[in-house]
C-alpha cells in the first residue's frame, strides 16, 4: 500500500471542513485578546485527526455495509477498490482516533473536563456516522452531525480552549462553517442518491428526493454566507466581516450546477464548495479583525 493510497483515502478535499472552524474560532479569540498558541495547535491537530479518522472509518464501514460497490458514482474508495484491506483500514481509523488521546489530555489540562466531552463525543460520532447498528449517515442524521460538530462545536471548542469561556456570538459564528460543510455533504448525497437508495443508505437526499437536496444545498450555502449579517445585528460591531457574504457571487455557478446536473457531473462541486468554505473563513477572519 503506497503513501498516495492513504492520502487519497484521507480525502484531502474534505479537510477545509476541519480547518475553517479552527481558523474562525482562533480569529475571534485574537480579537478578544485571549489567543493561546498551544491550545490552537492542539485544536487544529485534533480537528484534522477527527476528520481523517472519520474518513477512514467511512471508507471501512461503507464497504462492510455494502454501500461502496462498483456501481458507486464518485471516486473509488480505497477499501472498495481493493487497494487497502478492510483489516488495514479498520486499524487506520482506530490508530488515527487513538492519536487524539494526548491532544485531549493536553486540552483537558488546559481547559478542564468539558474538553473530554467534546473530544470523546466527536470521536464517537465520527465512528457512528457510518458504523454501528444504526449509522447516523444511513438514518438521514449525517447532515445534523456535520452542522453541529463542524460548526458550533468546532468553533466554540477552539475558542473555549483559549478563553475558557464561550460567548454566544462565537456559537452563532460557528453556524457558518457548519452550514457550508453541510452543503459539501449535500453535494455528495445528491451525487450518490441512486447508489445509496439501492443499499439502504437513507440520506436526506434519498428520503426526500433530489428536489429536497437541491433546496437544502441552496439553504445551507446562502444561510452560511449570511451569518456575518446576523452577527452584526447581535454585536453591533465587526461590520467588515460582511465581506464574507461575498462568497455568494462565486457560489452562483455551483448553485446552477446543482439544479441542472446530476450523478457524476456533480463531483467537481465537492471541491468547489470546499473552496467556498475556505474563502468564507479567510474573508470572515480578515473582516473580523479589521
Quick synopsis:
The protein is mainly α and 290 residues long. Helix content is 72%, strand content 0%.
What does the model show?
The chain is an all-alpha fold and 290 residues long. It has a single domain (3-289), classed as Farnesyl Diphosphate Synthase (Orthogonal Bundle). The protein has helices spanning 3-9, 16-31, 37-64, 78-81, 86-98, 100-111, 114-128, 142-149, 152-163, 168-191, 193-198, 204-208, 210-225, 227-235, 248-260, 268-289. Helix 2 runs antiparallel to helix 3 (37-64) and helix 3 (37-64) runs antiparallel to helix 5. It starts with a helix and ends with a helix.
Count of all domains: 1
Helicity range: over 70%
The description of the largest β-sheet is:
none
Rough shape?
globular
Distance between the termini: 47 Å
Rg, rounded, reads 19 Å
The H/E string reads HHHHHHHHHHHHHHHH
Beta-strand proportion? under 5%
The CATH architecture comes to: Orthogonal Bundle
Query: What's the mean pLDDT score?
Result: 92
Please state the oligomeric state of the protein chains shown. Answer: single chain
Q: Tally the beta strands.
A: 0
Q: Tell me the number of helical segments per DSSP (H or I, 4 or more residues long).
A: 16
Query: Mind telling me the CATH class?
Result: Mainly Alpha
Residue runs with pLDDT of under 50 for 5 or more positions: none
CATH fold assignment: Farnesyl Diphosphate Synthase
Category by helix and strand content: mainly alpha
Amino acid at each position: 500500500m503506497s503513501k498516495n493510497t492513504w492520502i487519497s483515502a484521507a480525502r484531502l478535499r474534505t479537510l477545509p471542513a476541519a480547518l475553517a472552524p479552527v481558523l474562525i474560532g482562533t480569529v475571534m479569540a485574537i480579537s478578544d485578546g485571549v489567543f493561546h498558541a498551544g491550545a490552537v495547535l492542539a485544536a487544529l491537530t485534533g480537528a484534522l485527526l477527527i476528520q481523517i479518522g472519520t474518513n477512514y472509518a467511512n471508507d471501512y464501514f461503507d464497504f462492510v455495509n455494502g454501500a461502496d460497490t462498483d456501481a458507486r458514482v464518485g471516486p473509488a474508495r480505497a477499501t472498495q477498490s481493493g487497494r487497502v484491506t478492510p483489516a488495514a483500514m479498520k486499524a487506520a481509523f482506530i490508530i488515527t482516533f487513538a492519536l487524539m488521546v494526548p491532544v485531549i489530555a493536553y486540552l483537558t489540562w488546559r481547559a478542564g473536563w468539558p474538553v473530554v466531552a467534546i473530544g470523546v463525543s466527536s470521536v464517537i460520532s465520527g465512528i457512528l456516522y457510518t458504523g454501528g447498528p444504526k449509522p447516523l449517515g444511513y438514518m438521514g442524521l449525517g447532515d445534523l452531525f456535520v452542522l453541529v460538530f463542524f460548526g458550533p462545536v468546532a468553533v466554540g471548542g477552539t475558542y473555549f480552549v483559549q478563553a475558557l469561556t464561550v460567548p454566544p456570538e462565537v456559537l452563532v459564528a460557528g453556524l457558518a462553517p457548519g452550514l457550508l460543510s453541510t452543503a459539501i455533504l449535500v453535494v455528495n448525497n445528491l451525487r450518490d442518491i441512486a447508489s445509496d437508495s439501492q443499499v439502504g443508505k437513507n440520506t436526506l437526499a434519498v428520503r426526500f428526493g433530489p428536489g429536497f437536496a437541491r433546496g437544502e444545498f441552496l439553504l445551507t450555502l446562502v444561510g452560511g454566507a449570511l451569518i456575518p449579517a446576523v452577527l452584526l445585528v447581535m454585536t453591533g460591531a465587526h461590520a467588515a466581516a460582511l465581506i464574507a457574504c461575498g462568497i455568494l457571487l462565486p457560489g452562483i455557478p455551483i448553485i446552477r450546477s446543482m439544479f441542472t446536473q446530476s450523478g457524476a457531473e456533480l463531483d467537481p462541486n465537492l471541491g468547489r464548495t470546499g473552496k467556498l468554505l475556505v474563502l468564507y473563513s479567510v474573508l470572515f477572519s480578515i473582516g473580523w479583525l479589521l
